[in-house]
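During the second half of the funding period, the structural biology subgroup turned its attention to how the target accommodates small molecules. The most pressing case was flavin-adenine dinucleotide, which had performed well in the primary screen but for which no bound structure existed. We therefore specified the complex as follows and requested a full 3D prediction, including the ligand pose.
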Amino acid sequence: MTDDGGAVEEDGATDGRVGATDDSEHYEAVVVGCGPGGAAAAATLANNGVETLVLERGVDAGSKNVSGGLIYAEESAPYTIDGLFPGFREEATERPATENYIHNVAGDRVATFDISELHHHDTEWADSVLRRKMDSWLAERVHEMTRETGGGLLTEVRVTGLLRDGGEIVGVETAELDPITADLIVAADGVNSELARDAGLMDWEEPEEWYQGVKAVVDVEPDAINERFGVDDDEGVAHLFSGDLFDGVRGGGFLYTNRDSLSVGTVFHLDSIAAERAEPHELLDNLLTHPLMARWLGDDYREREYSAKLVPDSKKVALESPHEGRLLVVGDAAGQMQAQGPIIKGMNHAVTAGALAAEAFVDARSRGRPERAGQLYEEKLHGEGVMEKLRPSAYRNLGSLGEVEPLADWSDRLVESSLGRYAVRALGSGVLERLYSSPRLVSMIPDTRTPYVTLPTVIAEELGERVTDRNEVEPPELDDRIGELTYDVGDPHIELVDNSYAASGTAVTACPVSAEDFGGGCYRDERVKTNGHEEHVVSLDTQPCVECGTCAVVAETDWEHPDGGKGVEFREG
Amino acid sequence: MRTVVLTKGVPDFREGQVSFDEDGHLERGKTPTVMNPNDKHALRAALQTRVRNGGTVSLMSMGPPGYEEVLQEGMTDVYADDCYLLSDREMGAADTWATAMTVATGIQNLEESPDLVFAGFKTADGETGHTGPQTAWCLGMPLVTHVVALDVDEEAGTLRAKRLVEGDVEEIETVETELPAFVVADPEFEPTYRKAAHRLAWKDLREETRERAESFEDHLTVWDHADLNLDPDYIGLDGSPTIVAGVDPIPRAPSEREATVVDPDDESGMEQVFDELAPYAAGD
Ligand SMILES: Cc1cc2nc3c(=O)[nH]c(=O)nc-3n(C[C@H](O)[C@H](O)[C@H](O)COP(=O)(O)OP(=O)(O)OC[C@H]3O[C@@H](n4cnc5c(N)ncnc54)[C@H](O)[C@@H]3O)c2cc1C
Ligand code: SF4
């Protein structure tokens, strides 16, 4: 019997080409991944009559995805999600963010600024979303649209790499199907893109190139949301948090209102999590149990889902030329995830890039030069101003300077000094609120402790008010949180290449489902006695993995996604 | 590609489902009827053919009106286009031969004759495995049994199959035959869908069938012996050459058995136990 379970067809005869066989199926375009980037690419291709096959590895689109998440429609963007998918806001989103605040926290002192101005800058609308619902709604539309062109969308198919013919990219290989060739391959396979890696476009190996997001979806009745946040059914609130409540780790927290739940989470620089040996789930708990949260979370705290994922920092890794031959890379896979100060914009950029990649292919094809699609896509990303948003020149010129070690230390000390404190008092809430709301200023924020930890703490200490609410929330233990997740991994999708604690120990703390003194997660810290001497090692059991990708960056591992449909399945995202 | 799948209803033999009367006889009325588990493999083989080669699938069964439910279940499993139930008193108590005669006539009565007929490997109640092959014989179709993998080449009008040959060692043999043909699917049958186009076709079918399954009645045809122009002498009990001389009920486990309790610390008692067991261990 053949090893694919009994097919009778003989292997297709190769005609000397590498990878491709006579048997290969061909589609004009193959889109890998059906997050916002893939959905936008597929819809634009289908609208232009391109025969498009979409491959998604989850059991359902969105089952592997997590975001905060507010999806933005930018006024300056050439494409928005509701433009591509009519009815999107009515059908697939939760609530519009009608109010926006940032809370600077120092102990129980809090100074709150209204940052609606920043939030509304260049914004047509911004709605909260849950990814399982949003992505599976998009996927249904995508399937209908692409089916019209002779293609369609398939779930539970994992693309394992690129199909090459004499070194040239000609299609994709998958775990579940025979090789597929295509004139255009759109890699919209998200943050841990196997295709961008295969093409040699992604070498973001350093923790400073990433953020890690961890999130809890909390069950709350719609009426309780309306009452606790003072909104109507069709209104919502976005709260952001920074200051001293995250043990000095650089990053912040968020709370967004959904229809009948809250999304509460944290996003931190991965290098900071690694350096501080921070436990991501505990940092989330710090936020959940802060007195300020009591009024919104109530007494009957119930978590629907615990999730985590990495996101790339576009300032550092957005690809200048996100293409290679027929392969065009969009969204997180191309590093197009923008942290505009405290505001996170990844989904909207993925949408724009996906649609621009499709548009580039259609343009190139109509000129009879489909092979020019990549170059055209790159030109469009620059021409439409997307690259300037992702890698702002102001940051490159000034912000990154602030990250140089002595300067970073100096700015921290300055803010904490009596002079700094005096300045904060002198500026007062009004001016600071305006500064926080300046899009230009936030685009050049350096990735140092100063803007994330020190300054907000000083602001809270100098200008904040004491919060006296009692927070009774008891977040679930880690094993309860991960016990709720669905797994079916089979073959391990991670291998520890170097299990010494020195090489891979950070995985124990940085992995959102593992922790020091916790044996039930992915990574465990162990002392093994051999021949009379003791070794400090790390052991791995990928059973409860949420596939965030953190350990691929902070530890010595061979990491890949589990095959189609296997692994974690998020129901909320 | 026109395909027919044969299926049968059987008592649900799963634990907790079966009812017996005081004499230990099966109470058919109280035991739910389900699709013969082996027929699921035939459905899978038919589905694979349909997904890969397109065309239509009909489901056919001979039996009492209760089998309608089995057909309905099969309809959603294989996304069948229509279902046929061959049913009346005259057909009752048929042996495998009379069943094969009836079913073959049913198939011949279809507006369009099939390219492929699928049957499952033996039923859970009769266990003979005869009906499929006998039907093939009645239809004069080439028969391929114990099929574990299947590939139909419509253009060439042929079928290639891998079949499991059980003997001292299990072997897989590849055979090729012309269409129309009759296929008995083995429980080891594994459908494969290695082309995106196949999986997309499958998705289309699922969509199409959702509505069809809801209006099952509209897609069901019931034929009695008159519809099929069958002579009652050649079907049902009268047309069954097999005579069942008797059925031996499997003896029920005695509710009480004699037992001697031996204390493991009692050495001589334990020696006695070993003496008793030794002949079994030695294979005597
Ligand atoms: C905690 C957190 C908070 C965030 N908050 C926000 C926010 O508020 N606003 C915002 O805009 N963005 C936010 N983001 C970022 C946002 O989620 C991403 O930028 C966005 O999802 C990127 O979209 P994408 O289409 O590129 O990739 P994804 O949404 O990651 O989609 C990739 C898809 O590809 C599939 N896939 C991957 N590999 C394969 C393969 N080999 N074969 C087949 N399929 C594959 C995946 O299953 C997935 O469906 C947040 C992220 C996190 C983690
Ligand atoms: S094992 Fe790795 S990928 Fe899985 S949850 Fe932990 S850090 Fe994330």
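Two results from this model are relevant to the next phase. Chain A touches chain B at residues 1, 4-9, 25, 27, 53, 55, 143, 147, 151-152, 154, 157, 176-178, 180 (CB under 8 Å). Residues 1-6, 10-21 of chain A have pLDDT under 50 and may be disordered.
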